[in-house]
């Protein structure tokens, strides 16, 4: 069975996810350049360091550019792919909601850290649903193509991603628990490193399954023999 719209849409989603992974790294550098400078290079945290300031400015600018490009490519991909599979439309709406919640979180961050945490957590939850709906759509395409090996792979990827989002939620609780501690900045930096590892794992898993689905739809990937023999 051919899915021309899904194939073209998935290509766009794949590009969007690569850009998003790069943006994730840039966001980490933007948010923690001062902390990294302080704890790894023993710079006085009170004084302004031009190097870390420039690094934060450049990475921040690139981060926002990359995020905008990622959202554009992602929405275009979801819209195109939704013509062949309805769950892509759900992923599209969740992506749009995630963008709105993220923007609100960025505006309320300075006046209220609590409101920032609420909106940022909500954005993360919606982002999780966007990825779940996207993978669900890919699984449906695999099922329609009678590729049970790809269905099983998709279900495994979805379970791992769900666990990773739960782990990320625990990190938020850890930060809130130690926010008044004398070691709050150290804890925040350690948690941030864990967050970046989890986020990159999420991107890599999604990219892996997208890549497999692209090959499946293009007819260039043979079914796994063990599954096929069954």
Order of helices and strands: HHHHHHH
Which band does the percent of strand residues land in? Answer: under 5%
Radius of gyration: 20 Å
Structure classification: mainly alpha
Report helical residue fraction: over 70%
Number-wise, the strands total 0
Question: What would you call the quaternary organization?
Answer: single chain
Mean of the pLDDT scores?
Answer: 82
- Morphology: elongated
Helix tally equals: 7
Distance between the termini: 21 Å
Biggest beta sheet summary: none
Query: Which segments are poorly predicted (pLDDT under 50) over 5 or more consecutive residues?
Result: 39-43, 224-230
Brief characterization of the structure:
Helices cover 84% and strands 0% of the residues.
């Amino acid at each position: 069975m051919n899915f021309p719209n899904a194939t073209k849409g998935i290509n766009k989603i794949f590009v969007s996810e690569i850009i998003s992974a790069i943006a994730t790294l840039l966001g980490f550098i933007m948010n923690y350049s001062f902390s990294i400078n302080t704890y790894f290079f023993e710079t006085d945290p009170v004084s302004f360091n031009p190097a870390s300031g420039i690094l934060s400015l450049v990475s921040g600018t690139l981060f926002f550019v990359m995020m905008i490009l990622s959202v554009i490519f992602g929405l275009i991909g979801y819209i195109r792919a939704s013509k062949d599979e309805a769950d892509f439309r759900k992923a599209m709406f969740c992506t749009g909601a995630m963008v709105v919640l993220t923007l609100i979180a960025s505006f309320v961050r300075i006046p209220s850290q609590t409101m920032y945490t609420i909106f940022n957590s909500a954005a993360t939850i919606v982002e999780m649903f966007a990825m779940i709906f996207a993978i669900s759509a890919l699984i449906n395409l695999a099922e329609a193509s009678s590729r049970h090996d790809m269905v099983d792979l998709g279900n495994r990827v979805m379970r791992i991603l769900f666990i990773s989002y739960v782990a990320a939620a625990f990190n938020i609780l850890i930060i809130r628990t130690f926010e008044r501690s004398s070691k709050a900045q150290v804890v925040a930096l350690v948690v941030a490193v864990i967050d970046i590892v989890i986020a990159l794992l999420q991107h890599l898993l999604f990219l892996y399954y997208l890549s497999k689905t692209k090959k499946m739809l293009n007819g260039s990937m043979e079914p796994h023999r063990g599954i096929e023999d069954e």
